[in-house]
Design a protein that fits this description.
It comes from Peribacillus cavernae. The protein has 169 residues and is an alpha+beta fold. The protein has helices at residues 2-13, 57-65, 78-83; strands at 17-18, 20-26, 29-35, 38-43, 46-53, 67-72, 97-99, 106-108, 113-125, 128-140, 147-150, 153-156. Helices cover 16% and strands 45% of the residues. The protein binds flavin mononucleotide. Flavin mononucleotide is lined by residues 19, 33-37, 51-53, 56, 84-85, 87-88, 149.
Length: 169
């Protein structure tokens, strides 16, 4: 089993991902944890999934508060990503966050996008807890290069980006 786990880690390290910070509140203060296990799962209704290590302080906080934020990081935010991933240290995030436009969740300043969710469902899965969130608000930030993660390294998308028009009906 241990060998499969090690190979699984190596395999998943080869899946390049974007990088998000999941925000909540701990002791009434903004808290941020770096997360790559984030994806959209439905558009109507708009649902998003995040998977958090069950022993993370944020897992308890989100269960209690029934809401969370997801800030998608831009290329210049490696420092933020590292702060939200530092093992065994408090992740109070005042330095990096503001309230989102509705004052509902803490949003990482200058993030590509911030998504505010109400918890719709919670599923225990191995050593992680999956939160399915109903998207209630979205704040679109400046269009710029995303921060990426591949094989335990942060990096950037090197192709030139073309900004496609956002269609909001
Ligand atoms: C790029 C990246 C992606 C991560 N993705 C996740 C994730 O999806 N879920 C998770 O629980 N932890 C993820 N982590 C690890 C957490 O950020 C890290 O374990 C946590 O912040 C450690 O905090 P703690 O010691 O206070 O629990 C990721 C870390 C990095 C650097």
């Amino acid at each position: 089993m241990q060998q499969v786990i090690e190979l699984f880690k190596e395999a998943m390290g080869r899946l390049a991902t974007g990088v998000t910070v999941v925000t909540s509140e701990v002791d009434g203060r903004p808290w941020g944890v770096t997360v790559s296990a984030c994806c959209s799962i439905s558009m109507d209704p708009p649902l998003l999934l995040i998977s958090l290590f069950t022993k993370n302080a944020s897992t308890e906080a989100i269960k209690e508060q029934q809401r969370f934020g997801v800030s998608i990081l831009s290329k210049d935010q490696t420092k933020v990503a590292k702060a939200g991933a530092k093992p065994g240290t408090p992740k109070f995030f005042e330095e990096f966050t503001d309230f989102d436009h509705d004052g509902k969740t803490h949003m990482v300043k200058d993030a590509l996008t911030h998504i505010h969710c109400k918890v719709d469902n919670v599923v225990a899965a191995g050593d992680h807890t999956i939160f399915i969130g109903l998207v209630e608000h979205v704040t679109i930030g400046e269009f710029t290069q995303p921060l990426l993660h591949f094989h335990r390294q942060f990096g950037i998308f090197t192709d030139e980006l073309e900004q496609k028009e956002t269609v909001v009906k």
